Amino acid sequence: MAVTTSPCASDALPEGTVDTVVIGGGAAGLNGALILARSRRSVVVIDSGSPRNAPAEAMHGFIVLDGTPPSEILQRGREQVRQYGGHVVFGEVASAEPAAPSADGDLRFAINLADGRSVTARRVLVATGLKDVLPEVPGLAEHWGRSVVHCPYCHGWEVRDEPIGILATGPASIGHALLFRQLTEDLAYFTHDTHLDEGIRARFAARGIRMVDTPVQEVVNNEDGTLAGVRLADGQVVARRILAVATRMQARTEGLDGLKLPVRDLPDNMGLGFASGMAGTTEVPGVWVAGNATDLAAQVGASAAAGALAGSHINSLLATADTDAALNAAQGETPVP
Q: Is 17-131+248-333 a CATH 3.50.50.60 domain?
């Protein structure tokens, strides 16, 4: 049996049917839950306790909270959801699927956790986030989130003026290089078996970007374990303090097969996420998706905003469903002439 551990307190899973289960306790999920809880909706957040930005020392690019550790933001978010009556439950979702509708025809979903607990919900918000898939280069993963970065807006200021290397993974790395060139004059582009045409090479040369065509063999460390550079296939070591990698981004889909949510691919095989429409709606009635699970490039602020929009839309449709049910009940009680 899978067991999820967390340093944070977990609420008891409510009995009966709740208005909404939010799967995922990051910025999108917590903000969606906050909107719902403040609307006096019963809401449960299922949090696996493994946010994408956990390795980062601080979150950047979100006004007021810039520089705040991700763990602090999430802890404050959980407290605020609970302040309005919401529940935050730590656990892994083993399955989520439509269930038999209520007597009045309203939607129902069964959410089962890996430890055997379960909850029934009228609506579901999927905010599971994504996983970053790194190239299989020995030594790369151990520096992820510190000396190996992916986002010039999340980490750029902190690595300014350092010797930076772009470890190419595909066409997306070309734009990556131009953005990181804004941050340093010492930028090396490791093509690493990807193709650069002459036009791109000319543009890189004009910007003073050094191009290295010999494949990267491994990441090299200093004696204290910090990143020293990369060793190429010919044995040469190129000193770098920072490596930037355009990862392949994969929405977290574990346990969600039963919802049959459609997915979409990013161009150039750079990612796979859930397809969504206005306010996070999906093709599956009663299921919304928000944050990195559908918008793979969204930072914390954008994810939080998407969660709020989805939460307000869920509340609106629940209000309509409540009114429909009340009207049907009232009409059923009126004698037919």
A: yes
Q: Choose among 121, 93, 118: nearest CA to 258.
A: 93
Whether 17-131+248-333 shares its CATH topology with 135-245 is answered yes
Q: Which structure tokens are listed for 273?
A: 């996420």
Residue 143: what are its φ and ψ, rounded to 5°?
-105, 5
Q: Tell me the domain boundaries of the chain.
A: 17-131+248-333, 135-245
User: Is residue 27 within 8 Å of residue 290, measured between CB atoms?
Assistant: no
| pTM for this prediction | 0.91
C-alpha closest to that of 31 among 255, 251, 302: 302
pLDDT for 5 beyond 50: no
Q: If you average pLDDT over residues 18-45, what whole number do you get?
A: 97
135-245: CATH topology is FAD/NAD(P)-binding domain (3.50.50)
- Closest-CA residue to 127 (of 50, 37, 225, 25): 25
Cα–Cα distance measured from residue 277 to residue 325, given in angstroms and rounded to the nearest whole number:
27
**pLDDT (0 to 100) of residue 49:** 84
Answer positive or negative: Cα dihedral of 265, 141, 126, 176: negative
